Amino acid sequence: MPKIKSETKNCINYLRLTSTIKNLITYQATQEGITPSEWLRKLVVKELRERDALPPTYKVPRILEEQPDQ
Questions:
Q1: How confident is the model at residue 31 (pLDDT cuts 50, 70, 90)?
Q2: CA 61, chain centre distance (Å)
Q3: Contact 2, 57 (CB under 8 A)
Q4: Are 59 and 7 in contact (CB under 8 A)?
Q5: Which one of 1, 17, 35, 70 is CB 3.0 to 4.6 Å from 21, fit for a cystine?
Q6: Within a 10 A sphere around the Cβ of 42, how many other Cβ atoms?
Q7: Residue 28 is assigned to a structural domain of this protein
């Protein structure tokens, strides 16, 4: 997958999941051809957009905009 220009990802959030949830995330990410981390970022950005919580100048990498919602 080609690199895209975006804000540097230099912060880490840890979360605990059941193995079932982790496996579902991995499966969904694989179906979309992206990593589980990218899939989770996409989900978070989508939720923040729906809540109008992103700053107006926030630029989302193009890969997030090109993936169809499922």
A1: very high
A2: 10
A3: no
A4: yes
A5: 17
A6: 20
A7: yes
